[in-house]
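Issue: ligand-bound run for zinc ion - logging full I/O for the record.

Environment: standard queue, default settings, no custom constraints.

Inputs:
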Amino acid sequence: MRTIFRKAHVCDPSQGIDRVADVVVDEGKVLAIVDDSTPYDVGSCEVIDCSGLVLTPGLIDLHVHLREPGFEYKEDVQSGTAAAVAGGFTAVCCMPNTDPPLDEPSVIRGLLKRAEQVGVARVYPIAAITKGLQPEGLTEMAALKEAGAVAVTDDAYPLQSAEVLRRGMEYAGQLGLPVLTHCEDKSLTKDACMNEGLTSTIMGLRGMPAVAEETQVARNCLLSLYTGCRLHILHVSTAGAVRIIRWAKERGAPVTAETCPHYFALTDEACMGYNTNAKMNPPLRTQADCDAIVEGLLDGTIDAIATDHAPHAAHEKAQEFALAPFGIVGLETAFALSFTELVSTGRMSLSALIEKMSCQPAKILGLPGGTLAPGAPADIALFDLKRSWTVRSSEFRSKSRNTPFEGWELTGKPVLTMVAGRIVYREG
Ligand SMILES: [Zn+2]
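Outputs:
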């Protein structure tokens, strides 16, 4: 079956395309981008009028907690990938802190089988660096890669031992697997639940200082330089972390970095009123940090925008602030938040945003997609960038509703998502 997207504003930074054109999709792949698709309109062919809409390579999220196996009451492969495609994402990379964790080839294979059965978005498992996400004891990374893992990470359980991370990087580096790290010196964040600063003082809560993130960013960048292993820094939240990554890149460290929309859209003041939907790790920081994050995105220090989609059930977030779990959902708001905060304000071009949310994520983990070059998989997102809409978590496809953006007016709505030539989401 052939599909023709007619008169779309095609934005594909991978090929430098930013103009109105027709996109022809055939047998799950991009066939051509042409000014006039009439000669291609033969046989059984669906023609989609895209006047006024923007068509891009499907977004790729490097940082998603699908919660399956083990925590299906928060999210599962079905609901998580449904939320992804409703947000314009055609692929998600999922984190290993499940139960059982993604530390055995059989668990990776089981997850991939589930994703194939569900058949919505592409799912790329990221395996654990250590067995059981424990402080030491490396996983069998070769077997995990063989089973389908695309990287390894310590997310949610940051490795405190430099020696363990060093050995993990040496092992992963030999296999060509990137290492993704959550940077947090736990000795500086014991019992802390938000950013350390004026707001935490006013609220009477124990804070996590920025330096707890920054010391590990520095350590991990140095270990990347030392071992030569590809390092990707997860969810950068502080100005100091941006400066350290910039320094490491200037010295040729094979380092990339991501941030999340909440780290430039919100400050720690969102926690006021003990709002547990503003509790995440790393925590929301200050306006100066938000500004430095945007600067880092603009100058290329921060390569990608991911969501850190972290669903939690309502009863879990309904606890008192210090006890509630860390994390927010993000798949269904990430694009509109980024577009509203960065592009609508004139700070970033649309093509730079697509670069951060599609092309770079594909490059960082060596995934298919991130391009509409002829022969590439037909993973496509279509957006109405003129549309304003209100965030209503009750309408989310995700099983969880833990968002700090409830009621926000955003601009930019995903209206259609295609994976491998198949329409997997269509608004209305
Ligand atoms: Zn994390």
